[in-house]
Design brief:
Blueprint lengths: L2 E7 L2 E6 L3 E6 L13 E7 L2 E6 L1 H4 L11 E7 L2 E15 L18 E7 L2 E6 L1 H6 L1 H6 L3
Parallel strand pairs: 2-9, 5-7
Antiparallel strand pairs: 1-2, 1-7, 3-6, 4-5, 6-7, 8-9
């Protein structure tokens, strides 16, 4: 699998492949999007580009304690780009180790999970960006 960018979401460790992460930026001003689904936090300005910001904890239905989001992980897959709220620590790790079963309360976005690993004592859900963008809720709000 190679390297992944790992960060925290709703008290869990998640990761995206390095090849799909454009950058990680501090979470600044978020412009509201009216009548958007609960997982859409709004729009952020990333180097002059309006990027939708999604809350993975809500999208994946994590039931764990919520941490204050302090960053946006900008992810691209094909022509789709979005920011995903997260919190520290954020780092790049090798996606090796023992594969595990999904935690019982992993949420409803299980189809977006490519791999579940144990890295440095933490269970890490490695997400497939293409699958995240194909989740029915995301497909309904993304631009064609």
């Amino acid at each position: 699998m190679g390297q992944v960018v790992r960060f925290c979401v709703g008290g869990r460790h998640v990761a995206f492949p390095v090849a799909n992460v454009r950058e990680v930026v501090p979470l600044g001003h978020v412009s509201a999007v009216f009548n958007a689904p609960a997982f859409v936090e709004g729009l952020i300005n990333v180097r002059g580009e309006a990027v939708p910001l999604f809350d993975l904890a809500t999208l994946l239905d994590f039931r764990a304690g919520q941490l204050r989001n302090s960053l946006a992980v900008i992810v691209e897959s094909g022509r789709h780009v979005a920011g995903f709220c997260g919190s520290r620590p954020v780092d790049i790790v090798e996606a090796t180790g023992e594969a595990e079963a999904l935690p019982g309360d992993a949420g409803s976005g299980l189809s977006a999970v490519r791999l579940v690993l144990k890295i440095e004592g933490n269970t890490v859900l490695v997400l497939d960006p293409a699958r995240v963008f194909e989740l029915p809720a995301v497909s309904a709000v993304r631009s064609p």
